[in-house]
Specification:
The chain is an alpha/beta fold and about 250 residues long. It has helices at about 5-15, 35-45, 60-65, 100-110, 135-140, 180-195, 215-225, 235-240; strands at about 20-30, 50, 70-75, 120, 145, 165, 165-170, 175, 200-205, 230-235. Helix content is about 35%, strand content about 15%. Strands 1, 2, 3, 4, 5, 6, 9 and 10 form an eight-stranded parallel sheet that branches. It has a two-stranded antiparallel sheet with strand order 7-8.
């Protein structure tokens, strides 16, 4: 793998006595599938957060996930249907009032709650944040939520985002490439070090139903490589939310 500059950055973390917190979110599960089987085999007990759309075959999915160590289930919207006009997709149009959003969210959680490993956290499809969503999630008792690209946000509920997408989407889903992926990881770690945000987690984002063979092959190599790095800790979303991520924001 293209590791030279990333390894230099990790050495800087080691010299500083700091460790990288890496967490993993996979989106769009609805039912058992061969791709889900492959994802679970690749995760191999590492902490994995499955963002599940609560309109699929929940009973069959629950049976498949029974006894899966390290897998947490969170709510991925309500039905993954785009109801917005224009180029930006989202389940909830901006004009929807809080009560309408809350009704949809509660109904989705009621379907998802029986799954093994289910935790009351929310991932909006297309990472679209409706203006009322944070308040709705707090009102509905959610422990946290996750979208895209921001530093972790304390509050009620706390937000812990993903930052590192395995795929590129423009022109069709495909692996974004090893050099671009690892270069982005290095950039994220460098930015955290320079800002003193040592405990700011880095979120790996995958979409098992969209992976091509290049993405699967790299994901296998990357997870094995990360296991062998003394400066990288795999961390589960439940632990991050329980700790109120980020824990510290100073050097």
């Amino acid at each position: 793998m293209h590791l030279t500059w990333l390894e230099v950055e990790l050495r800087r973390w080691r010299v500083a006595g700091r460790r990288v917190r890496l967490w993993w979110r996979d989106d769009d599960a609805r039912a058992p599938s061969a791709e889900l089987d492959r994802l679970l085999a690749t995760a191999a007990g590492r902490p994995l957060t499955l963002a599940v759309i609560p309109d699929g075959d929940i009973a069959a999915l629950g049976a498949r996930l029974q006894g899966q160590a390290g897998v947490s289930i969170v709510q991925h919207g309500v039905d993954h249907t785009n109801r917005r006009k224009g180029p930006v997709a989202g389940e909830f149009p901006p004009e929807w009032r809080r009560i309408r959003v809350a009704t949809q969210v509660r109904a989705g959680w009621a379907r998802l709650a029986p799954l093994p490993g289910a935790m009351q956290a929310f991932v909006p499809p297309w990472n679209d944040v409706h203006p009322e969503l944070p308040v709705v999630l707090g009102d509905c008792g959610f422990a946290g939520w996750s979208a895209w690209g921001q530093d972790a946000v304390e509050g009620a509920p706390p937000r812990v985002d993903a930052h590192l997408d395995l795929m590129r989407w423009k022109g069709g889903a495909r692996f974004r490439g090893e050099a671009k992926f690892l270069g982005e990881l290095r950039r994220l770690l460098t930015a955290r070090r320079r800002a003193g945000l040592w405990d700011e987690p880095v979120g790996l984002l995958t979409h098992h139903l969209a992976h091509d063979e290049a993405a699967w092959a790299f994901l296998t190599r990357f997870t094995a490589w990360a296991d062998g790095q003394p400066q990288i800790d795999w961390t589960g979303l439940p632990e991050l939310l329980a700790a109120g991520a980020p824990v510290a924001r100073s050097a």
